[in-house]
Design a protein that fits this description.
This protein has 18 helices and 17 strands. The two termini are 48 Å apart. The strands form three sheets. An eight-stranded mixed β-sheet has the order 4-5-6-9-11-10-12-16, covered by helices on one side. Strands 1, 2, 3, 13, 14, 15 and 17 form a seven-stranded mixed β-sheet that branches. It has a two-stranded antiparallel sheet with strand order 7-8. Helix 1 crosses helix 5, helix 3 packs across helix 4 and helix 6 packs across helix 11. With 559 residues, it is an alpha/beta fold.
Length: 559
């Protein structure tokens, strides 16, 4: 529903941009020019009046130019006077002044790459977030109930079962976070994950957040999902990010859920909103048909899960994929499922893919939120990660932040000391998050950490590629650390779509033969090397050289 009103919201945004340009740039410039050229205006009036009296002579061209210029200035003076007396006249004047500048920005926005801050359709996502953030948990709970009623049964409905993972053999899978911009930064990784997907040991792929930007619309799935993943012949699963929830998860459900589950979930969302929505049976039919058509034409193995969360269970390995919506929350139905899934995972090596990370940019996200007294959702989010730690989840991987980060958390409690490995794997194609590399704290929340890209590499790229008109923002970061904002808040300004690319994703190898899980960080040219990362503490294994492949190795032993 929200995706269908994007043009309206974008148009409203264009009007607001026009008014801002008119008030901040055009009108002050016109008034300043008017004052500066007043002596010239007096001279022009003198010549014009003299010509009419016959005391001076001008040729036709000069007379026409002077007359046109004076009439334009006189008309502008009249419009200014009317604007001072009438608000409607003032708005009309501002729209006339600002529209040419707005049209210029809209036309050149794709060339300049200022896509997130001067694209009013992106502005609309802020409105979508406010409209949907408090409805996510009730919607999800209704969806789960509806799917359960439609199929009958229990938690087995939310289990995935890709081929080739049962038994004693080794297998791998890929995890890509936040891919869905549909531009060069997303496509820079395509050749790499398509090549890995051809290997027999790679069994499936998980998208860990934000499948589609900016608002999860069904119209964007072809260019931003099916085209980039065409040729990946293994199953593709996903958990939604906050942007996917902006259309009430309708498009995500239609594409990633089994058709029966998708229809039940969408209808349940409509029922949860008491039918006060533009989504009707015809709209649902169109969504389902559109998704089925794209699956068929692009032959992407998708539409094989039954909820925006799922689990994978083998005798020795368990994977939980958890949807945390927009505000880092889970509803009661999903929380109960998480607890039961963790119970089923006891004694196994357990990995969780979560919608939002526990650590980001060197900071403990729940602790920051609690310090700012944001809401009780921060405590619920912290409780979720405590629940995972209590059940000895060894690896927690998340997207949302658009880079790669790693933190080793030492957990000390009543039992033996344990380690939880936290990965941010959100560099799958969206604009790069620069806050980590450019504003990493001197005392990070975890002693052992790593991130990609390195600070010096990112600075070199930005220095080399920064156009003149973005230089003020770049110096604002360099000199004032983006005060009073954060460096991360400026990331969307620097959405570069030129090589070198710093996008990344992870391959997860479950090596039963060696009783270990190996996580390999891939960039656009293949596995990254340790020298590509910035690290602190004891992250790099002993004896490893800078040119060696980045591999995080976690034992499958239960301790």
């Amino acid at each position: 529903m929200l995706g269908r009103i994007s043009p309206l919201i974008a148009t409203v945004g264009d009007v607001l941009m026009t008014l801002v340009f008119a008030m901040v740039l055009v009108l002050p410039a016109r008034l300043a020019w008017r004052r500066m050229t007043r002596p010239v205006e007096r001279l022009a009036w003198f010549l014009r009046l003299a010509a009419e009296k016959g005391t001076a002579r001008m040729n036709r061209v000069a007379d026409w130019l002077v007359r046109q210029w004076l009439e334009a200035r006189f008309a502008f003076s009249l419009r200014l006077r009317e604007a001072r007396l009438s608000l409607p006249f003032a708005l009309i004047l501002l729209l006339r002044l600002g529209l040419p500048v707005t049209a210029f920005f809209v036309a050149f926005n794709p060339i300049w790459g200022f896509s997130w801050y001067f694209n009013t359709e992106s502005w609309a996502t802020g409105i979508y977030q406010k409209l949907t953030e408090l409805r996510v948990d009730p919607w999800r709970a209704n969806m789960v109930d509806a799917v359960t009623r439609a199929y009958g049964g229990g938690d087995e409905l939310f289990r995935i079962d890709p081929q080739g993972i049962v038994g004693n053999g080794d297998f791998s899978f890929l995890v890509i976070g936040d891919p869905g911009e549909g531009d060069a930064s997303q496509y820079s990784l395509a050749s790499r994950y398509l090549k890995l997907g051809q290997r027999d040991d790679v069994k499936f792929l998980v998208i860990s957040s934000d499948v589609i930007y900016p608002a999860g619309a069904i119209e964007d799935y072809e260019a931003k999902f099916y085209l980039p993943f065409q040729g990946f012949a293994k199953p593709v699963y996903a958990i939604p990010g906050n942007h996917d929830w902006f259309d009430a998860l309708e498009s995500f459900n239609a594409n990633f859920l089994e058709p029966k589950a998708a229809r039940s979930a969408i209808e349940a969302r409509v029922e949860a909103d008491l039918g006060l929505t533009g989504t009707n049976p015809r709209r649902i039919d169109n969504l389902m048909a559109h998704a089925a058509r794209l699956r068929r034409l692009y032959a992407v193995d998708v539409g094989i899960q039954r909820a925006p969360f799922f689990e994978l269970q083998t005798d020795d390995f368990a994977l939980l994929a958890i949807d945390t919506g927009i505000l880092r929350t889970v509803d009661e139905r999903q929380l109960a499922w998480i607890e039961r899934a963790l119970d089923r995972s006891r004694g196994k090596f357990t990995m969780a893919i979560v919608g939002h990370p526990r650590f980001a940019a060197g900071r403990d996200i729940p602790s920051i939120a609690e310090g700012q007294d944001v809401s009780e959702s921060s405590e619920e989010f912290a409780a979720l990660y405590r629940l995972l730690a209590t059940h000895n989840v060894k690896i927690a991987m998340a997207g949302d932040t658009h880079d790669f980060e790693y933190y080793r958390e030492n957990i000390v409690g009543d039992g033996p000391a344990r380690v939880m490995h936290h990965f941010i794997n959100g560099g799958g194609g969206a604009y790069l998050s620069i806050g980590t590399a450019l504003d990493f704290p001197k005392e990070p929340a975890a002693a052992d950490w790593a991130f990609y890209p390195r600070t010096d590499h990112l600075r070199a790229k930005m220095d080399a590629e920064m156009p003149l008109w973005k230089q003020p923002f770049w110096y604002w970061i360099k000199w004032f650390n983006a005060w009073p904002f954060s460096v991360e808040a400026f990331s969307g300004i620097f959405d570069f779509n030129h090589a070198p690319f710093f996008q990344s994703f992870m391959e997860v190898r479950v090596e039963r033969s060696k009783k270990r899980v190996v996580l390999i960080l891939n960039g656009v040219h293949g596995p990254l090397q340790w020298r590509d990362l910035q690290t602190g503490g004891a992250v790099i294994p002993p004896g490893v050289k800078p040119e060696d492949t980045v591999e995080f190795i976690v034992s499958m032993d239960n301790q």
